[in-house]
Q: What sequence folds into this?
DNA sequence: TTGTCGGCCGATCGCCGACAA
DNA sequence: TTGTCGGCGATCGGCCGACAA
């Protein structure tokens, strides 16, 4: 999986430690994340935190849900090993430096509205996304319309009809959009990510509103009171 | 799973040895069935056949495909055990006797035609099935129509509209049929089984044309040459 | 008796501009 | 700028009898 698309899907809040950097491993947090909130680690037999070196990072995506995650291989640093006493939070500095030196390709994320997710509707493309991420549209045609191809995290290519129409004018994805919504089982509140790679290719990723595990969902389903007649 | 529905789905060719009867266990055949045609059992260390006693039989159905199968628990009979020298094929006789003494509820199987499996079509019910398996239809109504409920191997109830119409008259399942076909992923060549239990309830099972394992499929897909224009 | 076909009607899908937030 | 709505045309699902095998 392309690391840039991975980061675009994960969002700006997610930072990954570079390989060979040092991090602290928290067994308690790991156990809670894997098994749920109620855990019993044998007190005194497992240290609260373990200084480790990042041996490998693999960027992955769930085959079914497209949700991105990472597998990080950690190797514990022994106390007698050189560098053990050094401040471990140099990992953060290294991560920040590593992130800054990487190219940040243009990407755009939008949370799906009811109209976007409803069947029978298209996708309302924010102007910024259409103008900076999508391929150039020939506005001289009437109506201005083009076919947009976007590759998802699995390399599958999706085809969308991109049209600029309506009064006032706005960018829309029509044909191909509902198929995408149904196949990916997207609902209002989920987010879609468009990213343009360096060679001009377009990628598409998704970010689910409901998340499993202890990373609580920022999105709660609000029940609208029915309009009084 | 109801043994009678199980037998109706498995077909008349399938006979199960009764519990406590004696059978021969063939390790070679078992290995081929489980792993494929190429196996290497350590010659001389595993006997070609083992006399066993049937300890338990469980009638089961695949949760996804509805295909029926059975789990048979075997306990080897030791050579010094009484009855070892007795002819083991008494199992067959016992099975036949056991099968005969069981009630044989009315059941009917039909292989789905193209018209049955095609979307937009209903199911053409053979007269015998409609008259002997289905609930009595009131022919005085116009048109004669009723709702038929049938329980599948998982206990899920399916609802069909059963109508007697057309010239010449014939029995058809219309509303509800295509949903059943889609949910069960039925295609032309698969078979459907209807069975009426002693208390009058209707059951429905399916028999797939394509079978996994070494039990070769009797049904081969024949490509029809397109009609000349 | 029953498999297949064309007709036909209603439901749904999905594209559209009109608004208004 | 863009979210939601009603309209409406095209498509599809699915029920029907006609006909023939």
A:
């Amino acid at each position: 999986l392309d690391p840039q698309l991975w980061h675009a899907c994960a969002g700006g809040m997610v930072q990954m430690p570079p390989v060979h950097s040092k991090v602290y491993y928290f067994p308690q947090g790991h156990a809670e994340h894997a098994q749920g909130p109620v855990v019993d680690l044998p007190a005194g037999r497992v240290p609260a935190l373990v200084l480790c070196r990042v041996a490998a990072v693999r960027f992955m995506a769930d085959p079914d849900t497209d949700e991105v995650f990472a597998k990080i291989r950690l190797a514990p640093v022994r106390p007698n090993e050189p560098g053990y006493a050094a401040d471990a939070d140099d990992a953060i500095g290294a991560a920040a430096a590593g992130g800054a030196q990487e190219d940040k390709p243009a990407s755009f994320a939008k949370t799906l509205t009811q109209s976007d997710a409803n069947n029978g509707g298209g996708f309302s493309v924010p102007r910024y996304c259409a103008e900076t991420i999508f391929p150039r549209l020939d506005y001289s045609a009437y109506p201005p319309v083009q076919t947009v191809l976007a590759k998802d995290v699995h390399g599958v290519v999706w085809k969308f009809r991109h049209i600029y129409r309506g009064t006032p004018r706005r960018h829309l994805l029509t044909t191909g959009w509902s198929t995408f919504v149904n196949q990916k089982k997207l609902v209002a509140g989920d987010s879609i990510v468009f990213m343009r790679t360096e060679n001009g290719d377009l990628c598409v990723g998704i970010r689910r509103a409901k998340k499993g595990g202890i990373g609580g969902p920022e999105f709660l389903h609000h029940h609208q009171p029915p309009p009084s007649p």
